[in-house]
Amino acid sequence: MAEVRLREATKQDLDKIVAMLADDRLGSKRERYELPLPECYLHAFMAISADQNNELIVACRDNEVIGVEQITFTPYLTHQGGWRATIEGVRVSASVRGLGIGTKLIQYAIDRAKVRGCHLVQLTTDKQRPEALQFYQRLGFSATHEGMKLKL
Amino acid sequence: MAEVRLREATKQDLDKIVAMLADDRLGSKRERYELPLPECYLHAFMAISADQNNELIVACRDNEVIGVEQITFTPYLTHQGGWRATIEGVRVSASVRGLGIGTKLIQYAIDRAKVRGCHLVQLTTDKQRPEALQFYQRLGFSATHEGMKLKL
């Protein structure tokens, strides 16, 4: 397999990122992938890019976007004023699953968390994705918490 | 009971906030409450205050701080570029538990999430706190996700 490179996403990656988010059992019910992209995605991209505590990361192979994740760095008072990194929106293109791209994305986020001085990396994973739970457990994450959501 | 008021925390509230964080079964193992406060808490407070996507909220009664929470607003690409509010570090002073202060804090966070245009309010709660799980369920949260943590 050609080398996989991870980097911050640019506006030019957005079509492919949203296509990945929509090409997913749960994502297909809640995303709206059409070209040109709905403006809501562009607004969100601008907000993420403008925030130094948020990073949108893509995995690329031969200049093609094949994976995505978002990392959020948050300062907290708890744990003696410790920063945390939160990973969200991890997706890998259907055509390249099982090749370790997801592992590379998570390892990259862990490395970024260390660079940013975080004491903890955290994420929530939908209980409808048991294979994702096992994936994160293999990478060292523990399911010590309940992930609770309230839709507005 | 005198009226409970919720507002953004100031630096003058910090001693009392950290005292509350430390006066907790889990918090007592990981916080360091001594006066003057360790500088790490002041640094974290400054980082939170400087970030327009983070709000540290205190509940006060008769000008005494009796509760605290942190709300983080995050832009995401997922859910059609939807913002989320994340609640963390919720604590109520031991002397006033059971009086609805926690409910007021969460309701305040939900209201702030609506003002900020979020589509979702989320939090993780330690599986060692079953009473907290029930508290959040009564307020409408669903434990649809696993909350996974990796200590660095």
Q: Biggest sheet of chain A, in brief?
A: 5 strands, mixed
Query: Numbering strands along the chain, what is their spatial order in the largest sheet of chain A?
Result: 1-2-3-4-5
What radius of gyration of chain A results from the CA coordinates? 16 Å
Helix content of chain A: 25-40%
Secondary-structure-derived class of chain A: alpha+beta
**Oligomeric nature of the chains:** homodimer
User: What do we call the CATH topology of chain A?
Assistant: Aminopeptidase
Number of strands of chain A: 6
How many helices of chain A? 5
Distance between the termini of chain A: 43 Å
Order of helices and strands of chain A: EHHEEHEHEHE
GO molecular function (chains A, B): acyltransferase activity, transferring groups other than amino-acyl groups
Pfam families (chains A, B): Acetyltransf_1
InterPro entries (chains A, B): Acyl_CoA_acyltransferase, Bact_Acetyltransf, GNAT_dom
Keywords (chains A, B): Acyltransferase, Transferase
